[in-house]
Amino acid sequence: MSDKTYFIKGAIEPDFIAGQIAGHGKKTNIGAHSIFLGQVREDKLDSKKVKAIEYSAYEEMANKEIAKIREDAFAKWELTCLHIYHSIGLVKTGEISLFVFVSSVHRKECQAAMQKIVEDIKNQVPVWKKEILEDSSINWVDK
């Protein structure tokens, strides 16, 4: 297994996302892209607003799990590209914490793959979320 990391410190910036998308214009065998952006919501907990989420992970294990999700997706669907980036550390409400970018020859493959990939990330990757509330209290989120 490689030493590749799928984690980005802090929020995933719009310029980074745009750069990833722009870089695929040269790949002329692609007919469809599907993009998922997970954004931190300003939920309320006991009438207090969530101001941020602090993400933590056992990165070695999480990276291996994401690599497996990628391998499974390439085995199941005819994908040309698959990029997964997850935030680690503090991400404020309104900022992006998960970026998944799937490309394939046809849209149906792309959309089906995206649905499964995002669910697998949510259910299988060991990432923990600690909500930071407006009064600085915290709440650990159960997946």
Structure description:
The relative contact order is 0.26. Strand 5 and strand 6 (96-104) form a beta hairpin. Strands 1, 2, 3, 4, 5, 6, 7 and 8 form an eight-stranded mixed beta sheet that branches. This protein has helices at residues 14-22, 59-76, 107-124, and strands at 7-9, 32-39, 44-45, 48-57, 79-92, 96-104, 127-133, 138-141. The radius of gyration is 16 Å and the shape is elongated. With 143 residues, it is of the alpha+beta class. It starts with 6 loop residues before the first strand and ends with a strand.
What are the SSEs and their pairings?
Elements: E1 7-9, H1 14-22, E2 32-39, E3 44-45, E4 48-57, H2 59-76, E5 79-92, E6 96-104, H3 107-124, E7 127-133, E8 138-141
